[in-house]
Amino acid sequence: MNTKIPKDGTITIDVSTLDQPAGSSLLDGTNPFSEWYGNFTTANVEVTNNGPATWTATVDPTYSTLTLTSTGADTPVNDYVNVTFIGVKGSPWTVDSFGGDIPLFLIATRTDDSSTAPLNFDIDTVPGTLSVVNGPVISTPSGSTWANFTITGNDIDQGDNISIPLGGLTPVIAGGEPLTNANVQVTNTGLATWTGQISGKTLNLTANTNFAAVGDTVNVTFIGGASGAPHWLDNSDGQQNILLTATRVDSRPDSLNPPNPSVNFNFDINTIPPSNVASTTINGLTITNCNGPQSLSVDTSIVPSAALIPNSSVLQIQPVNSGFKTITFYSRSGFSQNGNLITGAISGVNLVSKEITPVSGFSTGIGPQASFNYSIFLSAYPCAATLSTQIWEGALSGDTNTFFQIVNNNGNKASLIGTAYETKIVKTNFPTPDTVKIHMSVNSSWISSLPGANHIYIGRIPDSGTGSVLNTSFLYYDPVKNLDYFEADSPGGLSTFGLLALGPNNNVFQIITLAIVNQVSYLAPAAQAAPAAPAAAAPAGQSYVGSASSASTQYPQFTPMVTAAPTTPAPPDPGQTAKINSNANGVITQAATLVSTDKRATLILGEGVTAKDSAGHPLSSITIKAIPEGDLPSTSPGTDFSFAGMAYEITPDGATFSPSLALSFVVPLNAPIGEELTIKEYDQATGTWQDLPTQHDPSTGKLTTSISHFCCFAIFAKSTAPAAQSAFLTPAPTANTNAVTPPPPANAMSAFIGMMFWIATLIAQNLIIFAGIVIIAVAVILYARKRRIDRRLGGI
């Protein structure tokens, strides 16, 4: 300054050009760029000086004049007063609608001498942008990753947001379900408080309570399986790098630059399902001479579950934290117990795994309580061996191709529609088992959700060699869990398995051929046909269709490509045993459920029931065992009754219960017309079959009765119509259930007659279609004939 400014002196600056009525000033913008109209206020100004005076700034209510006032002392010559113009949210110049450098000329006036000085006000605002840093690779179904965004170029107004479409994550979300807010966690730096909200398949991050300044950060963490939200699922057989886009949605964008700038970031995932390890090294179990002949010693003080049930030839343990649900040892010479030690020679062993599921469970579509287990029969105990099982929803991409080839390239008359889930078992020091049974369950509605699927099979991919579709049986339906249970023998042992949904292929000629085969087989004499259950049941070795279907259906039937094992006598059912926990008075203190080996019979022992043996002592265990038809008492159940294929013996004899127990059987949903099912018990004292009050729920296929003692129980079919069929339940499969091609008709003539009958029926049912075919065939013949005549005439 050339002269001092006295105390309380002022300088005024005309700022009206910065803030005129809406649309008039440059910074307000002009149509069509009138995105924002703001007010220039005191918040837009900062004042500093180097002299003894104190300067302050005030903008008048009309937003046209900035007044600088000195207080406390004079402002000497050569002192300076510095005015800083600040773009504050809710105030001007956050947007340069015209782009480029905009110079404005403002006039400053000293009120003490009216001298003036011009000053330049230049603006060239940079459009708002984002920068991002990617988080780590997700490696577990419940793992997390993050994206850290930094505000660049320009501030983000309060209430504005960053939008992130999440549709690209669908392939890595279990069940393809949308993420929930529980899958997202948001943190930030700066004045604003950021929140994250998922709407549909879009995540919106919103700045609340204040603006977000340049340099502020917003961190978004994606968490799998949080608070019951969907978990991650990576079936790519390798790391996936999914590209997502975050877009700034500014309410006041730079009009001459691309609006809503965006930035891409990676969502990387490689979830390797953790292994469920089952180990044969068990504390309290000692195996002598692992290479054979083997003997064992079990310390019941360490393995309290050890029990000789139902007799001294069978020893069952339930080892804790081993990965096995039960291990059952067999001994021809029998086991003996002396104090806490049970000893004996081993002649065979059965290992049953616990129920295996993904860490976070399956999706709703597959069934949150669906699971996998295996049962292994060996002639000797595998010492220091482990089985490591991985399980995941769907199938790895490479395995999907392999299953597809197995179904289509082995002569099977079906096509792969989908895979519910897949499991892989890695063996360490484990021998090839004598027999392996695979059990897999799935949501009862899963197959109906796949267009074209009508069969469920278990497929096997071996560690080496050719894969196969296993001979699969439908076991039963659990209405509480809404699950269907399936079983398959795996002659090749343990490896990789998938629960497959199959449907007919699209080969028209193959479908016709199969329909002919089905019809001819159906017409063959009963004496020549392999025994099988009607379509309403799920016969061993055949697929589960889910609803009744005619034996002459024109849908192609799937024949598993399994080498038929030599026919061997069916081994007896080893039975299933449940341990009973009761007090000194025989009152059950913990509820238990006993399920038969074939999963068709269930006995429920409720808490509070009094259970005693024939001597009146508390009952320690009970056993259920299937009875083959040939071993049933020869006594007739009555002239109107015929055996319906299910009979069981429940022991020990003489055991009594108060109140009675609920005994139920799972039977096909659709009984043949003219048959009524009933449960009978065999009275050894009188040598007769006695009726039990039976409740039959056709909607669930469940037969239920109440029993107060144990004996032999069986299901019989009572004929209620002259043309009623005989029993329709297939006895529980105890022999090798490998599929064998049904035998041919009795002779060529019956086959020919059956074929002609089928063709006639097919024509009658599809008259219009066959008429069209005939017309086309005639037209083709006439056209060919005309061509021949034309060629002859042309040669004359």
Q: If you had to describe this structure to a student in words, what would you say it looks like?
A:
The chain has 796 residues and is mainly β. It is 10% helix and 37% strand. Strand 12 (193-199) and strand 13 form a beta hairpin. Residues 26-36, 94-100, 506-568 and 722-751 have low confidence and may be disordered.
List keywords for this structure.
8-stranded antiparallel beta sheet, 6-stranded antiparallel beta sheet, 46 strands, 10% helix, elongated
Number of helices: 4
Mean pLDDT: 77
**What shape does the CA trace take?**
elongated
Computed CA radius of gyration, to the nearest angstrom: 41 Å
Fraction in beta strands = 35-45%
Widest beta sheet: strand line-up? 20-21-22-25-26-29-33-32
Short structural description:
10% of the residues lie in helices and 37% in strands.
